[in-house]
Amino acid sequence: MSGVSxxxxxxxxxxxxxxxxxxGRIAGGGHSVVLRYHQVREQRDxxxxxxxxxxAERGASARVVAEANKMAKLSNHGNIVSVFFSAExxxxxxxxxxxxxxxxxxxxxxRGPFTVxxxxxxxxxxxxxxxxxxxxxxxxRDIKPANILTDEYRNxxxxxxxxxxxxEDPGDEDGGIAVSVPWxxxxxxxxxxxxxxxxxxxxxxxxxxxxxxxxxFAVSPARPGDNSPEAMEARILAGRAPRTGRADxxxxxxxxxxxxxxxxxxxxxxAALDVVRELQRIEAACGGPVRADDPWHxxxxxxxxxxxxxxxxxxxxxxxxxxxxxxxxxxxKPAEPGVETRTQRRTAAPPATPVAATEPEEPPRNRxxxxxxxxxxxxxxxxxxxxxxxxxxxxxxxxxAGQETAPAQDAGAGGDLVPPGIxxxxxxxxxxxxxxxxxxxxxxxxxxxxxWQTKDGAxxxxxxxxxxxxxxxxxxxxxxxxxxxxxxxxxGTVDWSPAGCGR
Length: 503
Hints:
Radius of gyration: 26 Å
Helix content: 10-25%
Strand order of the largest sheet: 1-2-3-5-4
Order of helices and strands: EEEHEEHHEEEHHHHHEEEHEEEEEEE
Mean pLDDT: 75
Structural class: alpha+beta
Distance between the termini: 55 Å
Strand content: 15-25%
Shape: elongated
């Protein structure tokens, strides 16, 4: 919000505000135009967000003003853009906020990825801002680098809380919402309501973005690929975000980002305060908080250390700018029996053009293999049965009233078709300083990953195999709990397992 261009937004007449002088335009978006004013008595510049509502959206004016007034309670938080007051000019609501003269993080990211310690500090500060907002019942719904501004002291400040209610489409009976796809969690892309864990996912995607210069599910410009919102949405719904691949990113941070970006909301940190505490712990191990005047950007890294989705020296490109435009997701209406529902999308920026409905997800590879194998068994059985000339099913397979009965199926079998069983965790000492925890459960699936935590919550992580080594001096009891996370985000274990303990 540092540049001023033109005298007003396109078609927007600056409102007359007593005691304030209009100075120019700062920025414009699909729902609003941000103007710069000078507050005469206090001799300071402010930003005025004028909402450009159309049609049915105008009914949201009262909600916008109410939400902005609620955010005014957080004006003293150092990492939230202060809201001074809100009002209406005719049928146009506007919000008077602090003016942040620094560049937003999206603009800064164009010069390259950030240092690890800078990203940790930003993560702590923005998670603390979210904790304060969530305590008031406010969910941001659109966290991304472009919505984190910097003030004159280079402090990051989260903005766009005041119009988060406009992410819900008042013209849609099915409750459509507008999202920025690259940073949106899978449940929101499926049209489900956002909660606090959706903000935690989006913050995790933002931190990943700052570390690599690329969005978590973006395809590298060095390799062919489709980075359209539709293609990226399909990748978010189908899998997990990769590791950042940076050699200087601590394993603990990689694991925690994987937990923040877990497809299943229940596998993410339960509250923003948990994010603050874990990032602070990692930050302390990395040397503590950076100073505000320390460098933002990371020196070039070795290309071999970076995955295809996050190339070395990656930075925001002109093609990425299109991804900042929010995409409209229509929440599906309750399905009638036997009727399949699909998610429909349309671009949020006017005029909106509908996009073809998404196709159902392809079953995971192992599930396809299992279904194919089952089909082969059935065909083989039919051939043998025909060869022996049988016309009726064997007596031992016939139940009462001539109904066939199948053998009892293990409730824990079937891969992603049924939930995994509750893990049983055991521990063994591998050396005087470490305990190794392993676990077993029914219905294992080779794409499963696992969230783990010590029973006291002091240590957490995400691993790809059912084992983890935890630092534990001899004689000290440590207990670990585990949750199974399915690759598609569904049918994972919801609750933590009973703890397995060792000394």
